[in-house]
Amino acid sequence: MTYKMTRKADPKVGLVVAGVGIVVFGVLLAIGFLIGHPVYLGILGFLLAFLAMAIVFGRRAETAAFGQMEGQPGAAAAVLQNVGRGWTTTPAVAMNRNQDVVHRAVGKAGIVLVAEGNPNRLKALLAAEKRKMARIVVDVPVHDIIVGNGEGQVPLKKVRTTMLKLPRVLSGAQVTAANDRLRAMGDLMSNMPLPKGPMPKGMRMPRGGKMR
Where does the sequence pass through the membrane (predicted)? Predict the structure, then answer.
């Protein structure tokens, strides 16, 4: 299934992966004949070729997956769900009627607000969310990331690595306390009567209405 998905976005993936395997195996086998140990080097070449093929395929599959996700509503939330252990993610803590969205992740680096949508509108949305949190959590660093490929933005495929590079300044107990306070504050999805499942295309917030 992963190969089929990757091949749709990267038609040459099969040839590239096979080529890598053949080259690695061929080089080591040739070295084996030169030094008089073709069997040993052949076995080693087979193992290393398989490893190289797996690595190359994994990277191209990841690139293809991000390429298909990029620009899709909720793509950043999907990435946040796979950041790793130690992070608690809450999708869509803030949203406007244009479907610009802010997601929240809490970990030892503090609070990270990840926003996707129109960069100009997102600045106001992020500022409002920070003011709301400032009343609930104190002495907790807050970072914000706007997903995109423009200046000052972070590409979707680099969101995870950007978050993992943030300095860890909170203890486990502080992270738990911050999460408890933020849960008590509530979030967009728990306070609004939204239907379950994917958001219908073209859905707009009512004028004058705000999601909190």
Answer: 12-33, 39-58
List % helix, strand, coil for the chain (3-state, nearest 5).
55, 15, 35
Residue 106: φ, ψ to 5°: -120, 130
User: What number of other Cβ atoms are within 10 A of residue 149's Cβ?
Assistant: 10
The secondary structure element, H or E, covering residue 93 is strand 88-95
**Closest of 7, 41, 6 to residue 24, by C-alpha:** 41
Give bridge partners of residue 142 from the DSSP assignment: 111
Query: How many residues are there in the chain?
Result: 212
Kindly list the distances between the CA atom of residue 40 and the CA atoms of 36, 37, 62, in Å, as whole numbers in the listed order: 9, 6, 33
Give the tens place of pLDDT for each residue, 108-141.
999 999 998 888 889 889 998 888 888 888 888 9
Among 29-38, 57-66, 76-85, the range scoring the smallest mean pLDDT is 57-66
- Give which of 87, 164, 105, 97 is closest to 124, Cα–Cα: 97
**CB-CB contact of 103 with 93 (8 Å):** yes
Q: pTM of the full predicted structure?
A: 0.62
Query: Cα–Cα distance between 153 and 149 in angstroms, integer?
Result: 6
Residue 74 Ramachandran class (φ > 0 left, ψ -120 to 50 alpha, else beta): left
The strand pairing partners of 108, in sequence order, are none
Give the whole-angstrom CA distance, residue 115 versus residue 102: 4
